[in-house]
């Protein structure tokens, strides 16, 4: 037994891997192992011999099993140490910057616009996306025969036959929010109304759902000069330029009088938009002085109050600032597109810290 013990203790200590160790276990204490065969011989011994040999064989088996377990644990520890050396990482090194999600350009530009107008004293107003045609059209001085009220341009909600309630529409602009805001707070008022709007149109620069922001300022002595200053300050801040030239072209909107389309001086040299320089002009929004009928419809006395309103497409100014060629891609839910044009989720636009980061 001493020879068996010395033999297997030496072999176990010299085992290089777990496979070799398993072979030694089978040779020593397996069903046909040397120690197991020795234990089968106990039946051939006299009671006196079994009394001596039995405990000695059991002690030898336990010692071999303990040596096998200890060696297996040592081999596993050595394998782990080797793997850790290969996978070593210095946790004191600076971490790799990883973007946690992406902010959609529409959300980013909405925040930029809100920050700019908030600095000029404009609050944010919101309203329902499904509204009555009175708020969407009549209150804004849009007559019944106006093309915008046709079903080919506006999404009307289904009404059961015989239902005499006012028809509801998916709002075609955020101007109904101006009416609701004036009804709620009266004058003076200074608000912007960003949000989703809907029109039956679909091509490279139009989609059935898009986003607008409209502004409204009502007070006793507001004029077109105030409107011009507000828009100039907005364009300079949004496009992050020091100077800009605006051109007001006479136009017609039912809810403003006088009305004006607003262009900005720009250049397209090399296919890149540069605002504030060049010989080209780019239309960006519509504006004007609020029509007296609109004020009256909202419960504001037009003999005492006056003001201006303007509206622009958030999607459109996002395309212009960030060089996005196709409006439809805004709504395709393509993560590759979002990773390219999106913004870091923790960057909040501010005038002092930078709008676009």
Q: Outline the low-pLDDT stretches.
A: none
Q: Would you count the extended β strands for me?
A: 12
* Name of the CATH first level of the largest domain: Alpha Beta
The oligomeric status of these chains comes to single chain
Backbone shape = elongated
Question: Roughly what is the average pLDDT, rounded to an integer?
Answer: 87
H/E topology pattern = HHHHEHEEHEHEEHEEEEHEHHE
The CATH topology of the largest domain is BirA Bifunctional Protein, domain 2
CATH superfamily of the largest domain: Bira Bifunctional Protein, Domain 2
Distance between the termini: 80 Å
Task: Please summarize the sheet with the most strands.
Answer: 8 strands, mixed
Please count the helical segments.
11
User: How large, in whole angstroms, is the Cα Rg?
Assistant: 40 Å
Number of domains: 2
Helix content: 25-40%
**CATH second-level architecture of the largest domain:** 2-Layer Sandwich
Beta percentage is 15-25%
- The structure class reads alpha+beta
Q: Please, could you describe this protein's structure?
A:
- By secondary structure, the chain is of the alpha+beta class.
- The chain folds into 2 domains: 85 residues; 242 residues, Bira Bifunctional Protein, Domain 2 (BirA Bifunctional Protein, domain 2).
- The chain contains 11 helices and 12 strands.
- Strands 2, 5, 6, 7, 8, 9, 10 and 11 form an 8-stranded mixed beta sheet that branches. The chain has a two-stranded antiparallel sheet with strand order 1-12. The protein has a two-stranded antiparallel sheet with strand order 3-4.
- β7 and β8 form a beta hairpin.
- The longest helix is centred in the first third of the chain and has 40 residues.
- The mean pLDDT is 87.
